[in-house]
Amino acid sequence: MPEADIDHIYDYAPGYIADILKSVRTIAMVGASADKTKFSYGVLRVLHETGYDMIPVNPNPNVAEIRGIPVYHSLAEIDRPVDMVEVFRPKEELFGIAEQAVAIGAKVLWGQIGVYDDAAAKLATDAGLKVVMNRCPKIELFRPFWKPRLDLQI
User: Fold this and answer.
1) Dihedral of alpha carbons 54, 48, 125, 81, sign
2) What would the pLDDT profile of 81-103 be if each residue is shown by its tens digit?
């Protein structure tokens, strides 16, 4: 399916997402939190433990590291190539983050569950990035192994 025909809120072929997760190595997580009760912390932990090179991005000057990983305060500060920008920020911020992802040469823009914006998707795809929105890479990583058991009694 051509990239322009993808519905960035719901409709992704499993192979599209699987190819992204197989091809990326370095993930900048915008909105990473040092608070262990936050969903972004858990996703960062799982992706890091799975082998991805995680780059937490948090604008708070008091947050220097998360899980022992140095924190950057903006995408522009990152001093190495980034394959994927994962966004844990309100969807209203996604367009600006998409602009920054394009500027740093990222290959993928990924909006977490609830994070989507058609204008951001167009901007990113027009710049050659692959786009996933309203999905969680932690969930998608394990989706192929999860098989529903519809035969179980309730």
Assistant:
1) positive
2) 999 999 999 999 999 999 999 99
